[in-house]
């Protein structure tokens, strides 16, 4: 049942580091995070890794396994050959703090830049009436566990530090779509998505969708519809005419 | 050393902590949220089923009185009745408020919040979002904090002027000025640097203690920090012997053993079977619930569609009953191949319905166990899930006995008595999170002057000790032995000799933990963090074991093999733990619980109360009824 697996794990802090080799016991049914915990307990007590729920629900243990962003707790060892060397590295898009732990504050910064849910002033708590079919679109996006792997894999910022200030990333563009599709949200979302949060940078390569552990169709259901809404607004002849008349009157 | 001044410091960023912090900030207090993980990752995300609130959206017969009665029954009448009353009355408002902050619950046909059935709840009562309600709750509260920060940015030019999150920061000591709280001491996980909070009020919202057990649904954060911090600061812990073993945790593969399988599986029609294919729960309906549960499979099955004319199936008994039944079946040799029992929804609902109602269960079994729950049964067994015991608090304000100290959510004790009903946790943390935040704000308003921080040097020395030792104990080994000991000797079924043995082991482990050494630097060093957490886990384990040894009866989350019956005399008594500031000499004292208010006890039939109360209490009841 058990066997010895070969791991190469990135270790380091303060901007320096290297891949370190380990040989470690693996038992039936285990996931990569189990193996990292065994390393902590037996060989490398100060090996840094984030984790919480160990059930794919909190999105803490994002890492790159053989170069692919994955949740350590949901990556079963049985998906690898026993002879394979498994390489584990931190998320590439964010600065490394230590070993597998990265500084993800970029995401919290972006979260704060998206205006919050804005219901009409006259609806009181308890008075909300919404049909299931109308909440389902936004509910899909609210399945997001904020593992930030879509942010990590998005090529707009993965290798382009310079785009970070102007681009919210798939997770937060999806948040805008979620709010725009919320039956009670009254805030303007379309123009700002384009002008302030960088929706235009996205060229729908679907990397975010592919990597999403919750299987949210980020590109098809959030980003593309949002792009369409922006276009409708920008080129809608009536809106265009209205804005001209309005300007002239002033 | 980094130092911050706040009015209120909230420790913990799960549901209770965030709701408390939001309240304190809304009352105009400068508020800090300090949490061990990243913001939005707390254990609340794992709650699946829903938040119990008697909104009556699905069955209009529901109201706070029915919810109150269910809660008291679930807790076997040991609950702090004032908390159970406030909880039942205020839960609907707390759920509706979330909706106004952006939460998107599943809907009824007429557009209201949908409510689902759950164990021990008479009517469909749980507001939910599929089986990921906890995530919805934490994300909504997180986004509410962000909304307040955006407001503050507009008003003051600084989003963190009135509410700031200190993420990946662990508090190791509460600081005091004389008898009263004056702040908190901790370290940044990222750098290992120390941090001091200068604050007259601290709200503990640190959750539970599950990491003292091997098989648990709890994450690494659940090391009993708040319980231990309160104890060391001079507060009292009550009901520590009552631990909820959730009946359905995964049993295979070994590495995920204990991970939760939501009760919604049963609420939505799933049934429990043993290796002989028998729905064994029909054999385990206790006397106190005899008239409330179906006695045949046919009646139980009819109940899902016609609740007015049928009784509910016994799979939906309170969690303690179901967990004990599973335990007994496995012990009798009628378990599943992997050491649990079968939980089957595949033959009960169409596949599409299962993936819609239970998406994360479907995902979890598929990814982790190669089991397709739409085609085959799950194998499940009990897992350490929740501690009913915690900091003794005033029901209305969340205030502990130490001035300036407050607690809410799982870390507080009393609300759930000897056993918590599913769904009552998410509502608990909203109701009492808000109350503790308001309580702390009012306390700060009433102070003549700010207290002075003391004890920083001692706290620093204590925190550094494991790094300064060389060649000491491996903290991972000490932790592992503690987990095994508590699991095997103070687990779901307990007996005197075993608990005594556990206490001896804990004594030895305390000595070893004092000698725990951590190699490496102070930067993000999990070995060091664990060495510090050990103090808390050991303190809490000692309280659990000592209280478990004293309570010579079986009730809710405390089952004594040597005292199998429920005792009316013991029902009146709470066991209260206290310790010296250095964590030594933990003592447990008996305290008589105050009698229930007349109008509340009047909500029950005498015939039901006879199963729980002493003759003396029944005489009081008769007198109260006569008077009204």
What's the gist of this structure?
Chain B: The active site is at 319 (proton acceptor). Chain B: One of its GO terms (molecular function) is steroid dehydrogenase activity, acting on the CH-CH group of donors. Chain A is of the alpha+beta class.
Q: Would you give an account of this structure?
A:
The complex is a heterodimer of chains A (250) and B (628). Chain A is α+β, with helices and mostly antiparallel strands. Helices cover 37% and strands 16% of the residues of chain A. Chain A has helices spanning 32-42, 105-113, 132-142, 149-153, 155-158, 170-180, 190-195, 207-211, 218-235, 237-249; strands spanning 3-13, 16-26, 62-65, 68-71, 85-89, 96-98, 101-102. In chain A, strands 2-1-5-3-4 form a 5-stranded mixed sheet. In chain A, a hairpin with a 2-residue loop joins strand 3 and strand 4 (68-71). By secondary structure, chain B is of the alpha/beta class. Chain B contains 19 helices and 21 strands. In chain B, the strands form 5 sheets. Chain B has a 5-stranded parallel sheet, with helices on one face. In chain B, strands 19-17-12-20-21 form a 5-stranded mixed sheet. In chain B, helix 3 packs across helix 11, helix 9 (351-357) crosses helix 10 (359-369) and helix 13 (475-489) packs antiparallel against helix 14 (496-514). Chain B is globular. At the A-B interface, helix 1, helix 2 and helix 3 of A face helix 3, helix 4, helix 10, helix 13 and helix 15 of B. Chain B: One of its GO terms (molecular function) is steroid dehydrogenase activity, acting on the CH-CH group of donors. Chain B: Residues 7-426 form the FAD-dependent oxidoreductase 2 FAD-binding domain. Chain B: Residues 479-588 form the Fumarate reductase/succinate dehydrogenase flavoprotein-like C-terminal domain.
């Amino acid at each position: 049942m058990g066997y010895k697996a070969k791991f190469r794990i990135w270790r380091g802090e303060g901007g320096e580091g290297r891949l370190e080799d380990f040989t470690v016991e693996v038992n039936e049914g285990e996931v990569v995070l189990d193996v990292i915990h065994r390393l902590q307990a037996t060989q490398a007590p100060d090996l840094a890794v984030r984790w919480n729920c160990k059930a794919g629900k909190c999105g803490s243990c994002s890492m790159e396994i053989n170069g692919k962003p994955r949740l350590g707790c949901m990556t079963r060892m049985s998906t690898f050959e026993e002879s394979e060397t498994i390489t584990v590295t931190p998320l590439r898009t964010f600065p490394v703090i230590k070993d597998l732990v990265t500084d993800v504050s970029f995401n919290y910064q972006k979260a704060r830049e998206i205006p919050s849910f804005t219901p009409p002033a006259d609806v009181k708590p308890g008075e909300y009436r919404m049909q299931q079919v109308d909440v389902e679109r936004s509910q899909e996006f609210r399945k997001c566990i904020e593992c930030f792997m879509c942010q990590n894999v998005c090529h707009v910022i993965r290798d382009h530090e310079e785009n970070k200030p102007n681009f919210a990333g798939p997770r937060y563009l999806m948040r805008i779509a979620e709010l725009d599709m919320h039956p009670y949200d009254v805030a303007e979302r379309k123009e700002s998505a384009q002008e302030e949060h960088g929706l235009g940078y996205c060229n729908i390569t679907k990397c975010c969708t592919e990597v999403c552990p919750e299987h949210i169709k980020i590109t098809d259901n959030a980003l593309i519809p949002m792009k369409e809404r922006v276009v409708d607004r920008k080129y809608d002849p009536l809106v265009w005419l209205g804005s001209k008349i309005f300007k002239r009157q002033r | 050393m980094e130092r911050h001044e706040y009015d209120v410091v909230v420790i913990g960023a799960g549901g209770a902590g965030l709701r408390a912090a939001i309240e304190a900030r809304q009352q105009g207090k400068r508020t800090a949220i300090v949490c061990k993980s990243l913001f939005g990752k707390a254990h609340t995300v794992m709650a699946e089923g829903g938040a119990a609130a008697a909104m009556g959206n699905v069955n209009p017969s529901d109201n706070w009185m029915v919810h109150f009665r269910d809660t008291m029954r679930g807790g076997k009448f040991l609950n702090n009745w004032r908390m159970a009353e406030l909880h039942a009355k205020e839960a609907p408002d707390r759920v509706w408020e979330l909706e106004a902050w952006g939460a998107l619950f599943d809907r009824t046909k007429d557009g209201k919040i949908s409510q689902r059935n759950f164990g021990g709840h008479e009517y469909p009562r749980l507001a939910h979002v599929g089986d990921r309600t906890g995530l919805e709750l934490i994300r909504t509260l997180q986004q509410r904090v962000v909304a307040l920060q955006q407001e503050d940015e507009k008003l003051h030019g600084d989003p963190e002027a009135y509410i700031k999150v200190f993420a990946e920061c662990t508090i190791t000591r509460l600081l005091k000025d004389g008898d009263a709280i004056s702040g908190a001491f901790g370290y940044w996980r990222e750098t290992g640097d120390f941090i001091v909070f200068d604050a007259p009020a601290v709200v503990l919202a640190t959750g539970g203690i599950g990491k003292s057990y091997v098989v648990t649904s709890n994450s690494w954060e659940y090391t009993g920090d708040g319980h231990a911090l309160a104890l060391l600061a001079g507060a009292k812990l009550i009901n520590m012997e009552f631990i909820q073993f959730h009946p359905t945790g995964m049993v295979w593969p070994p590495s995920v053993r204990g991970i939760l399988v939501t009760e919604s599986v049963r609420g939505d029609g799933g049934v429990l079977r043993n290796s002989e294919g028998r729905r064994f729960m029909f054999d385990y309906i206790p006397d106190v619930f005899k008239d409330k549960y179906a006695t045949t499979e046919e009646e139980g099955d009819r109940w899902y569609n016609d609740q007015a004319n049928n009784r509910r199936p016994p799979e939906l008994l309170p969690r303690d009953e179901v967990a004990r039944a599973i335990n007994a079946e496995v012990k009798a040799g009628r378990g599943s191949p992997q050491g649990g029992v079968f939980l089957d929804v595949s033959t009960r609902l169409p596949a599409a319905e299962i993936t819609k109602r239970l998406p994360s269960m479907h995902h979890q079994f598929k990814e982790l166990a190669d089991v397709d729950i739409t085609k085959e049964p799950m194998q499940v067994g009990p897992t350490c899930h929740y501690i009913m015991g915690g900091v003794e608090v005033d029901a209305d304000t969340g205030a502990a006995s130490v001035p300036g100290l407050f607690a809410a959510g799982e870390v507080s004790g009393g609300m759930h008595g000897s056993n918590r009903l599913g769904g009552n946790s998410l509502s608990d943390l909203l109701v009492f999170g808000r109350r503790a935040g308001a309580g702390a704000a009012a306390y700060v308003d009433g102070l003549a002057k700010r207290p002075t921080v003391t004890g920083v040097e001692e706290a620093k020395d204590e925190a550094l000790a494991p790094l300064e030792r060389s060649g000491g104990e491996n903290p991972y080994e000490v932790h592992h032995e503690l987990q095994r000991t508590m699991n095997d000797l103070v687990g779901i079924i307990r007996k005197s000799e075993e608990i005594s043995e556990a206490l001896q082991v804990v004594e030895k482990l305390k000595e070893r933990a004092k000698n725990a050494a951590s190699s490496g630097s102070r930067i993000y060093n999990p070995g060091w963090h664990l060495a510090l957490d050990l103090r808390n886990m050991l303190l809490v384990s000692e309280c659990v074991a000592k209280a478990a040894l004293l309570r010579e009866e079986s009730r809710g989350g405390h089952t004594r093999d040597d005292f199998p019956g429920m005792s009316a005399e013991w029902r009146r008594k709470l066991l209260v733990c206290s310790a010296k500031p250095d964590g030594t000499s933990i003592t447990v004292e008996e305290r008589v619980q105050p009698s229930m208010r007349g109008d509340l006890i009047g909500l029950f039939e005498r015939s039901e109360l006879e199963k729980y109360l002493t003759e003396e209490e029944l005489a009081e009841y008769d007198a109260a009824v006569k008077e009204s």
